[in-house]
Amino acid sequence: MNKKALSIIGAFIGGLIFSIPWVLVYVLGNYIMSILAFLIATGAYIFYKKFGGEVTKKTSFTIGVISLIIVTFLVFIVLPLALMVNEGHGFNFAYLGVLYSDSKFVSAIISDYVVSVIFTLLGISGVVAAINKDAYGVINDSEYLEEDDEEKVIKELKKVYDYYKAYDKKTAIPDSVLFSNIKVKNPAKFKGNYIKRGVIVLASANKTYFDEEAILNLEKASSNYKKFKRRTFRIILFSVIFLAFAILAALVSVDDELTYKTYSYDDISIKLPDYFTKDDTVKDEDGYAYFEGYQSNNKIGVEGVILEYYDTDYTLSEIKNALLKYIEEGSTIIETKEVEVNNIDAYLVITNYKEYPTQYSYMYIFSNGKKAYTVELIYNKDNESEFLDNYNNINNIPYVVDKTNESDLYTRNRYRHNMLPFLKNENKNVHLKFLKFSSELFKYSNYIDDIVNKCVDSVYKDNKLYINEYIKLDDLIREKIMNFIFHDLYGDNLYLIEKKHIDIVNKLIFSNKPNMRVSLPNELVVIRNYDKVSFCKNKEISKDYKYEIKDGLIINNGIFHIVDDISDDSNYVCRLNKKNVTLPIYVRNRKNGDKICVKGLNGSKKIKDIFIDSKIKKSDRDRYPIVVDANDIILWIPGVKKSKYNGEKNEKCDIIIKYEEETWKKIQLKRAWCHIYYL
C-alpha cells in the first residue's frame, strides 16, 4: 500500500476515534451535543500525519472531505444502530430500514445532520490554520508590527506575498498563513484597513493576494476596493434573502403546526386538535358525547367524534354482534376486524352511512367487563387520505399501508391510479357501485378465510408443512395458507418477506428432489425432508428451559423485576404470598397438559387454550414464559393470565414480580428537541 493511501486510511481512523466522545454522549446521555463533532477534523489531521501523510496545500481539502464523510456515516448509520443496541434491540440492519421508513425519524435525523455538519465545518476551519502553517511554512518570525508605520507595514506585506508569489486569485494565500508571518494586535481590523487601501485584494472569504501597483496608483487601489464592496454587498443581499426565506418557512410551519387537547367522556378519552368543540346540546344522560371538527383547513380529515358507553357485562364478542345488528339498520358494513389500541383488545367496524353516502365511520369497540365503549371517527370520502395518514398516527391506532400500493406494476394500483379517476369523471357515483361490489367481495373473502382456517391445521403443525396434504388444495387456498405461515413466523417483521421468498419456498415444495434447504431473512431456514417442510431458526436454541426468578432475569424478549410496591394491576404484575406458594419461584416454558387455575374462575384451564384465545403465535408458544412455584404449580402467565394464587392490588404481599417486554414496539429514540416513538 502506498504512502498516500495509508495516510488517508489513518485520517479515517483518527476521525472515528476522536468522534467517540460525541457518539457516547449522543447514545448514553440522550443529548445531541453536536458541538463535539468539531473534534473529528482534529483527529483526522493528527492521524493523517502519524500515518506518514505529506502536508500540502491540498491537505485541507482532503481532511475536510474525510471529516464530512465520517460525520455522514456516523449520523445516518452508526448513531441509529448504536441507539438500538443501547435500547436492547441488538445490531440489526433490518430495523434500520424500519426507522428510515418513518418520516418523523428522517426529519429528525436530517436536522441532527445539519447541526453536526455545521460544527464539523467549524472544526475543519480550526484545523485548516494548522494545515496551512505546516504546508506553507513560516518565513518571518518577527515581533508585532507598529501599524502606524505604513511604509514598514507595506514592506513587510510585500516580503510575505513575494515569498509565496501571491499576486492573483490562483496564488492567493490563506489568512492563517499571512498572520503567521505578520503579527498584529487585531488581524481582522488590519486586513480590513489594507483591503480599503487597495493593496490587499480579497480572492475568497479567507484568501488574499498582493497588488503592488495599488501602492502608488490610487485609481487601481480605488478599483480594488470597489470590487470588494460589490462582492460584500452581494454576500449580504444573499444572506438577507436566505434568512428571510428561512423565517418565512418557520412561520409557515408554525402556522401549520396543530396543537392538541385530550377530550374525555366517562372512562374513555381521545386526543384531538384543539379546534374540535364539544356539542353541549348532547346531555350526559344521553349516554354519549359528540365532538365536532368541521372546518375548511381540517388537517386530519376527521369531521366528528362520538364517544359512547353501555352498562353491560357481556363479552366483547357478544357486544360486537349486538352492535353490528344495530349498525346494519343505518349503515353498510364494509369491514370488521380485531385490532389492538394502546394494548387493549378491540373490534374495528368500518361503515358507510346509507343516508349520507359520502360519510364513513371507523368505530372502535372496547370492553372492561363492566361497561362497553365505542369510539366512532366520522370522515368524508374526500378527506380519506388525510384521515388515514394523520388521525390514526395521532391516536396510536394501528393500520398497515402496503408499500406496493404506490407502484403501477400491480394491476390493482393501475386501476386505482388511472382507471378510477377516469370513471369518476364519467359517472360521479361510480365509486358507490364499486363499494357495493367490494361489499360482495368481502363476503366471498370471509367464506374463503373460513375454508383456509379449516385446512391450515391439517397441513401446517408445529412449524411443519405436510406436502401431500398441501398440494391437494386449490391454488387460492394454498396461497392463503402460505401467507398465514409467513405471518405466523415473522409477525411484526413480515416486511422482510418479498414475493421472491415465497416463490423460492413454493419451488422447494413442488420440486422432485426429496431433500432441499433454503435460507430466508432473519435467520429462518426452510428444510424439505421427503413429504415434510420444516421452518426453523438457523441457530435453533433448546426449547426447554427453567430458571429461578431473580431481579433482572431476561427470558426471550422480556425481563423480570422484583419490586417492593407497584400500583399496576395488569397481567404484567404478579403478587404472591408465601403462605399460598412453595418457594423458590421459577420461570419455564410450557409442557404438554399444562393447566392454570385462572383467577376469578372455578376450575382450571389448559395453557394451550389460553394461548389460542390470547392469539399468541404458534411459533412463540413453546418458548413463552410460565411462572411456577417449587411444586410446579402454575402461578402466572406474564402479560396474559393470573392464577387464583395472585393477591389483590390493595393487599400486602410478600413477593411482587413485574414483567417487561423488550420488543421493537417499545423502542424510544430520545433526542434534544423531539421524542420519536415507533409503534
Protein described:
This protein has 679 residues and is α+β, with helices and mostly antiparallel strands. It has five domains: 134 residues, no CATH class; 104 residues, no CATH class; 140 residues, Mog1/PsbP, alpha/beta/alpha sandwich (Protein Transport Mog1p, Chain A, 3-Layer(aba) Sandwich); 92 residues, 2-Layer Sandwich (Uridine Diphospho-n-acetylenolpyruvylglucosamine Reductase, domain 3), CATH 3.30.465; 123 residues, 3-Layer(bba) Sandwich (Phenylalanyl-tRNA Synthetase, Chain B, domain 3). It is 43% helix and 22% strand. It is built from 19 helices and 30 strands. The strands form eight sheets. It has a seven-stranded antiparallel beta sheet. Strands 13-14-17-16-15 form a five-stranded antiparallel beta sheet. A five-stranded antiparallel beta sheet has the order 18-22-25-26-27, with no helix packed on it. A hairpin with an 8-residue loop joins β23 and β24. α1 crosses α4. The chain is elongated, with a radius of gyration of 35 Å. The two termini are 49 Å apart.
Write the layout of secondary structure elements.
Elements: H1 3-18, H2 20-28, H3 39-50, H4 59-86, H5 93-100, H6 103-136, H7 150-164, E1 173-174, H8 175-181, H9 187-196, E2 200-204, E3 207-210, H10 218-256, E4 260-265, E5 268-273, E6 277-278, E7 288-292, E8 302-311, H11 316-328, E9 331-341, E10 344-353, E11 359-367, E12 371-380, H12 384-394, H13 411-426, H14 430-459, E13 460-461, E14 464-466, H15 467-470, H16 475-490, H17 499-509, E15 515-520, E16 524-529, E17 532-537, E18 546-548, E19 554-555, E20 558-562, E21 573-576, E22 586-588, E23 595-596, E24 605-606, H18 607-613, H19 618-621, E25 626-628, E26 634-637, E27 641-642, E28 655-661, E29 668-670, E30 675-677
Antiparallel strand pairs: 1-3, 2-3, 4-5, 6-7, 7-8, 8-12, 9-10, 10-11, 11-12, 13-14, 14-17, 15-16, 16-17, 18-22, 19-20, 20-28, 21-28, 22-25, 23-24, 25-26, 26-27, 29-30
